[in-house]
Amino acid sequence: MTLQLADKVAFVSGAGRGIGAASARLFARQGARVMLAARTEDQLEAVTEQIRAAGGEAGYVVCDLGDPDSVRAAVDRTVRRFGRLDVAFNNGGTNTPPAPVDQVTRADFDLLYEVNLRGVWAAMAAEVAAIRATAGSGAIVNNSSVGSLTGNPVLPAYGAMKRAVNSLTESAAITYGPENIRVNAVAPGNTRTEMIEEWAAASPGLVQRLIAATPLGRQAEPAEIAEAALWLLSERASFVNGVVLRVDGGARA
Questions:
Q1: Is 18 left (phi over 0), alpha (psi -120 to 50) or beta?
Q2: Which of 11, 72, 93, 177 has fewest C-beta within 10 Å?
Q3: Where does the record locate the signal sequence feature (predicted)?
Q4: Could you tell me the domains of the chain?
């Protein structure tokens, strides 16, 4: 069976845990040389060693998505290490405690903007430049959320930033499609990640409510979101561009 990312170089942010770690492992199994990026070095080192132990090729770079210079440096290091960039999954992000609009603090709003929106913009800008200069064509996937597709009374700022990511994704798809650089997004639903666990700790019963609203009747595993990102990055999705793909078990159907 042909590997979906054979001979490709992939950049994955937020790769130390959850969806990002699952994606980095999957991309490596599918033939990519993977650069993992996140803020926490011990997590990055552990996932990188897992990939290498399984026979894959990977490196890591400590990166602060809230700092555009750090993001550009991480992408540049990917090119220096592997010689090119073909695909990227902008998965990294942060969260803040659930709160209605009037109780979101300025500090929390600014943090979500800096990491979840500006960080994605900075990553896409650097990635497009790297793909254009080295591979000539490629694909980018941004991690959005089903919370971006509807009003979100307890996570309004988070949802707003993710909705803006959808807009950035669509604008980039139109802009760079003529260069054969495809840009899409995945919008995960209730997924078994540390972020959901943190929200659930602040809002007891949250996970159970989300499961009850999901026709498949369970949480997604991070690997299931990784599979969707893999497909969008691969040539199997060669005519898919500007899509925000719901991976939510039917919760928004």
A1: left
A2: 177
A3: none
A4: 9-190+220-247 (3.40.50.720)
Q: Is the pLDDT of residue 206 over 80?
A: no
Amino acid at the residue 228: A
CA distance 117 to 131: 21
- Catalytic sites, residue numbers: 158
Model pTM above 0.85: yes
d(CA 249, CA 253): 9
Question: What's the chain's average pLDDT?
Answer: 95
pLDDT of residue 196: 77
Q: At what angle do helices 118-134 and 68-82 cross, to 10 degrees?
A: 30
The pLDDT of residue 205 is 78
At 192 the pLDDT is 87
Q: Which amino acid is at 229?
A: A
Kindly calculate the radius of gyration of the chain based on its CA atoms and give it in whole angstroms: 17
Distance CA 124, CA 68 (A): 11
pLDDT tens readout for residues 189-204? 999 888 878 777 777 7
* CA distance to 77, 144, 159, 199, per residue, from 106 (Å): 33, 22, 16, 19
Measured between its terminal Cα atoms, the distance across the chain in Å is: 33
Residue 200, pLDDT score: 74
